[in-house]
Amino acid sequence: MKWIAAAVSLAVLAGCASKPQQQADAPAAAGSAGAAASAPAPARAAASTQPTDAGSSQAIALARSRIIGVEPSVYFDFDKFNIKPEFHNTISAYGNYLSVLKSAKMVVEGNADERGTVEYNLALGQKRAEAVSIALQAIGANPSNIETISNGEEKPRNAAKTEAGYAENRRADLVLK
User: Fold this and answer.
1) Which secondary-structure segment (H or E) carries 108?
2) What tens digit of pLDDT does each residue of 56-104 get?
3) Percentage of residues in the chain having pLDDT higher than 70
4) How many structural domains comprise the chain?
5) Which of 90, 119, 146, 177 has its CA 20 to 30 A from that of 106?
6) Position with higher pLDDT, 52 vs 159
């Protein structure tokens, strides 16, 4: 059941992340006045059409600026590994970066709070990391450039034994190499 929810979430993420950008790119390519007034539109178009690092430096600069503007972590609900809608911008920004800059490598580190057994938390951390990896691939990232690992409960961000503390520890960190 959880895998179905994750798959549906990823399908929605893929649809949200790619279709609006394609629609935004089409007017820019046609040279419409509305698109010409928006400075980022040509850079987005270049980012989506460049297949290699030799592509537009504008597209790479835009992709870098997008990842700077988002937190490099995706947070999860208790005992869940589905990506919540509020983190679609993070996934989109990093997925776009990896698809534009083909040589970029990433490690997705899955984490869990301390509740549950060590084995359970390692498995849950791995599922969280893999869910983020699949979402990045849906945006266009090369799977061979993404490594997933689980820290389980071993790398807490917050040591407080409160719900707020636990919530900070239920995450996947996106680490560029």
Assistant:
1) strand 106-111
2) 789 999 999 999 999 999 999 999 999 999 999 999 999 999 999 999 9
3) 69
4) 1
5) 119
6) 159
Say how many C-beta atoms besides its own lie within 10 A of residue 101's C-beta: 21
Side chain identity, residue 136: L
- pTM of the predicted model as reported, rounded to 2 decimal places: 0.70
| Cα three-residue angle 27-96-64, rounded to 5 degrees | 100
Residue 163's CATH number: 3.30.1330.60
Helix (H, G, I), strand (E, B) or coil at 52: coil
Rounded CA-CA distance 135/106 in Å is: 13
Other C-beta atoms closer than 10 Å to the C-beta of 16 total: 15
- For the chain, how many helices (H) and strands (E)? 7, 4
Q: Is 57 exposed, middle or buried (0-12, 13-18, 19+ CB in 10 A)?
A: exposed
95, amino acid identity:
G
CB neighbours (10 Å) of residue 14? 18
N residues, the chain: 177
Do the Cβ atoms of 124 and 116 come closer than 8 Å? Answer: yes
